[in-house]
Amino acid sequence: MSPNYTQDALADAVKVPAGHRVALHTVGVGQITYECRAKKDAPGQFEWAFAGPDAALNDRSGTRVGKYYGPPATWESVDGSKVTATQLAVSPAGAGNIPHQLVKANPASGSGVMSGVTYIQRVATIGGVAPASVCGAANPGSRQTVGYQADYIFWKAA
Description:
It comes from Janthinobacterium agaricidamnosum NBRC 102515 = DSM 9628. By secondary structure, the protein is mostly beta strands. It has one domain. Helices cover 0% and strands 53% of the residues. It is built from no helices and 8 strands. An 8-stranded antiparallel β-barrel has the order 1-2-3-4-5-6-7-8. A hairpin with a 4-residue loop joins strand 4 and strand 5 (82-91). The two termini are 16 Å apart.
């Protein structure tokens, strides 16, 4: 990510507040698992629910620099440092793509590149939406994976 990175094209809900700087820009490539589950407060109805991600985090040259997995959602650097986070907001990213996302990082475990990360943005998403196949009373608990790609931008206090 260049020092000239701008959030101008993003929805306000997923913009990182002023006073932070880009510390790391990765491209996540992997899959998201969905599980067929009963809808809360909707007896007899089912839906594909997010069950967890599994993605390699690569730098802009394609070198693996970490991984993203869960639950809980965890971003881990090859240096062993890692963070979990709490979702703050999402915004639409176009048909067929998981939404852009802003999460607030919890304090990192281990010392390394994830130390001091305050926010993580998921942008430039491709794919990753729930399967189009049937989820119903005949297949509760069944799981399906879908491929996706997204840029994960890690921010630290300036």
